[in-house]
Specification:
Layout (H helix, E strand, L loop, with lengths): L1 E5 L4 H16 L3 E7 L4 H5 L7 E5 L9 H24 L4 E4 L6 H9 L4 E5 L6 H6 L5 E4 L14 H5 L9 E5 L6 H16 L3 E5 L5 H11 L4 E3 L5 H7 L2 E4 L3 H10 L3 E3 L9 H11 L4 E2 L5 H9 L5 H10 L4 H10 L2
Parallel strand pairs: 1-2, 1-4, 2-3, 4-5, 5-6, 7-8, 7-10, 8-9, 10-11, 11-12
Length: about 325
């Protein structure tokens, strides 16, 4: 089978693409990637040798643009749509899998216009605008939050399952602000660092490239030794060592923590489209697998309270909720069409 994987823009979408590529490669299928020059697509896949070809087209998001900006964005998407049609034909693509994000629009519409079967994965509890538009025309629409989804669960790299464990006591805490970092989470980490140090709790902190220097200086002022990263591709190993996570509620990180059995306090990004991060975290809280707190003055108090909370029950629930081989099942469903 020749498969086109498309979508991206953010790390969350691209992690799903990476999981699908891993599964497809194991099954012996050929894959190409169509993404965008805008966003993180190049950073993830420009040198990914398991793709037989990668393409980054000039596209930008349409949402949150002014009238002129929307027109320019749509024109770029139309040009990329024409290019995508050519690429699908050139590589004799049998099916396209969209992982969402503005990067997915050109190849997704090109697939529909050329009668190439389109499959969609929705990463968030709130369906994105593009996926809402395309859903009626897709062969399959997969969502971990939808009980009607033909495949239950979320595509996560195998290593998160491989290193999964039950957390019984808090020795290491990890602060995750997403691929770009989050100033609110960075400030929270700094505000509780002394208390964590007093309790001999080791701190792992991904601060983001933009805020790394400031955070590093603040830890130095506090005289506290921490494991600090700007950005790392070894997140799986860091999560495996952690007993509690403080994290944004982007879908990929949320489900990676779930797969690994690491309980988390989620602090949703307040400006996410459709407040989807809050709804992602609300799903975890509803199933009694973690905690959620909006940004604000109560976050520090909530975190300090959690330091004395038992972790084992939450960790076991996370592991029992796991559905392994989701990406493989998604690829196998495509191959049946």
């Amino acid at each position: 089978m020749r498969l086109c994987i498309t979508g991206g823009g953010t790390g969350g979408h691209l992690m799903i693409a990476a999981a699908l590529l891993e599964a497809a490669h194991k099954e012996g299928h050929e894959c190409i990637f169509i993404g965008s020059t805008h966003g993180q697509d190049r950073k993830y896949f420009e040198t990914e040798s398991r793709f037989s070809a990668v393409y980054f087209l000039k596209t930008t998001g349409v949402v949150n643009q002014g009238t002129l900006g929307k027109f320019k964005a749509l024109f770029k998407i139309f040009k990329a749509f024409l290019k995508s049609r050519t690429l699908l034909t050139k590589h004799h693509i049998d099916a396209t899998y969209s992982v969402g994000g503005f990067s997915a629009a050109p190849a997704a519409f090109a697939s529909l216009s050329s009668s190439t079967p389109l499959f969609i994965h929705e990463q968030n509890a709130v369906t994105g605008r593009l996926n809402s538009l395309l859903k009626p025309y897709a062969k399959s629409f997969i969502s971990a939050y939808d009980s009607n989804s033909s495949i239950q669960g979320y595509p996560v790299k195998e290593v998160f399952y491989k290193n999964a464990r039950v957390r019984t006591e808090l020795n290491t805490i990890i602060f995750l602000g997403g691929s770009h970092g989050a100033r609110a989470i960075n400030n929270l980490a700094l505000s509780v660092a002394q208390e964590l140090s007093n309790r001999k709790i080791h701190i792992i902190h991904q601060a983001g490239e933009a805020d790394y220097a400031r955070v590093q200086k603040e830890y130095e002022k506090l005289g506290i030794s921490v494991e600090l990263y700007a950005f790392t591709k070894e997140l799986d190993a860091l999560i495996a060592r952690a007993d509690l996570a403080i994290s944004r509620a982007g879908a990929s990180t949320l489900w990676e923590l779930t797969a690994n059995g690491c309980p988390a306090l989620y602090i949703p990004y307040p400006y996410a489209a459709g407040d989807h991060q809050f709804h992602n975290a609300a799903f975890i809280v509803k199933n009694e697998m973690g905690w959620c707190q909006r940004e604000g003055t109560e976050v520090q108090m909530q975190l300090l309270t959690l330091l004395d909370e038992p972790l084992e029950e939450k960790s076991k629930k996370l592991l029992s909720y796991n559905t392994k081989d989701v990406a493989l099942k998604m690829i196998q469903e495509v191959s049946l069409v």
